[in-house]
Write a structure and sequence with these properties.
Blueprint: E1 2-7, E2 10-11, E3 23-28, E4 31-37, H1 38-45, E5 50-54, E6 57-60, E7 62-64, H2 67-72, H3 82-85, H4 92-96, H5 102-117, E8 121-124, H6 131-140, E9 157-160, E10 166-171, E11 174-178
Parallel strand pairs: 1-5, 2-6, 7-8
Antiparallel strand pairs: 1-3, 3-4, 6-9, 9-10, 10-11
Helix pairs in contact: 5-6
């Protein structure tokens, strides 16, 4: 499906680049079909495209260089464990005290990935030594390297609000996180 993403705050093709107001991104399937002024993309694709309006700045997703440490050296508690373990990741002695099976590591990694997606992360560094963590990352769609937004690349992006929080994270054109 063709979708035009219109960020009201503007478009940033590279995280260290400038924000350009009035720009939009057309996504066809999982790839970027076009970048340009919203009015031009609407005229070109509007009859067959869904339009999504975002109240923030759209840019390439964030890159997390500490991906392996966040997912393999920390345990992300299940909400059902909150009374005993809290809600923040456990490391050090608290982590060592847990009896973690491969299954539990995989579940922890999936919860950690969800937290990263909620921060606009679309790429993270590995390698991942634990097979269950590696599988969780591979299935999530997170990439090994962040890329600038450009035509004919995977539509991986995030929309950040004025408060710096993430509104939306997309991997391959699919919305994988959306703030309520």
């Amino acid at each position: 499906m063709l979708t035009i993403h219109h960020p009201w705050g503007g478009l940033r093709a590279e995280w260290d680049g400038p924000v350009t107001p009035g720009q939009a991104v057309a996504v066809d399937g999982g790839r970027v079909a076009a970048l340009g002024p919203y009015e031009e993309l609407l005229a070109r694709y509007g009859e067959r495209a869904r339009v999504r309006e975002w109240h923030g700045v759209l840019g390439p997703g964030r890159y997390e260089p500490d991906g392996a440490a966040l997912l393999e050296a920390a345990y992300w508690p299940d909400p059902r464990e909150a009374a005993d373990l809290g809600t923040e990741p456990l490391t050090g002695a608290a982590l060592a005290a847990l009896d973690l099976t491969d299954t539990r590591w995989g579940a922890s990694a999936r919860r950690g990935v969800q937290r990263l997606l909620a921060r606009g992360v679309t790429a993270l560094a590995g390698p991942f030594a634990r097979a269950s963590v590696r599988t969780a990352v591979e299935r999530s769609g997170l990439r090994a390297a962040a890329r600038p937004l450009a035509v004919d690349v995977d539509a991986d992006f995030a929309v950040l609000a004025d408060d710096g929080g993430c509104l939306v994270t997309a991997l391959g054109g699919r919305l994988v996180f959306r703030r309520a």
